[in-house]
Amino acid sequence: MDGRDPAFLADVMLGRLAKWLRILGYDTKYLASTCAGPIPRSLLEGRVLLSRKKDTVAHYAGSFLIHSEKLEEQLKELREHYGLRPDRSRWFTRCLSCNVPLRKSTQEDARESVPEYVLYENIQDIRHCPSCHRYYWPGTHREKMFGQLEALGF
Ligand SMILES: [Zn+2]
């Protein structure tokens, strides 16, 4: 790695891992359906293919074999191999469904889509996904995920 963060392409068996990599701020695409044919070159470009299948990893240069079935171990494998040190300021900055960087919402935009109590408490920190238009804000759910990441050593 040249000091830039790696980008990933998670195969179909690694949906949870893909989600957590997005939570950490890593650009991670997910192969949503079983890939019968070859993975398109355009998807692979600039990305590390993550797979639990030895055949797949042997077939694509620059891919990475995930050994464990457990999310915690999978993250650990990646962290140890790539020296991932995700900056906390980048946690929760990507849409968990689309992998697109979130944008800060204006109060006016958020007002129509976010419950009032959320507006009240989080007015500075409401973001939305420009692709699926989902809104994100800090809350107990996120705090729980923060805790999980800290427990994993991030
Ligand atoms: Zn989205």
Tally of separate domains? 2
Strand content: 5-15%
Uncertain parts: none
Mean pLDDT equals 90
Ligand set: zinc ion
Helix fraction, binned, reads: 25-40%
Would you list the SSEs in sequence order as H and E? EHEHEHEHEHHEEH
Report the total helices. 7
Classify the secondary structure makeup into a structural class: alpha/beta
Report the strand count.
7
Strand order of the largest sheet: 2-1-3-4
Summarize the biggest pleated sheet. 4 strands, parallel
User: Radius of gyration in whole Å, from Cα?
Assistant: 17 Å
Principal-axis shape: globular
Q: How far apart, in Å, are the first and last alpha carbons?
A: 19 Å
Write a structural description.
There is one protein chain. Helix 3 (54-59) links the parallel strand 3 and strand 4 (64-65). The protein is built from seven helices and seven strands. The mean pLDDT is 90. The strands form two sheets. Strands 2-1-3-4 form a four-stranded parallel β-sheet. Strands 5-6-7 form a three-stranded antiparallel β-sheet, with no helix packed on it. It has two domains: 7-90; 103-151, no CATH class. It is 37% helix and 13% strand. The longest helix has 12 residues, at 71-82. Residues 95, 97-98, 100, 129, 131-132, 134 line the site of zinc ion (ZN).
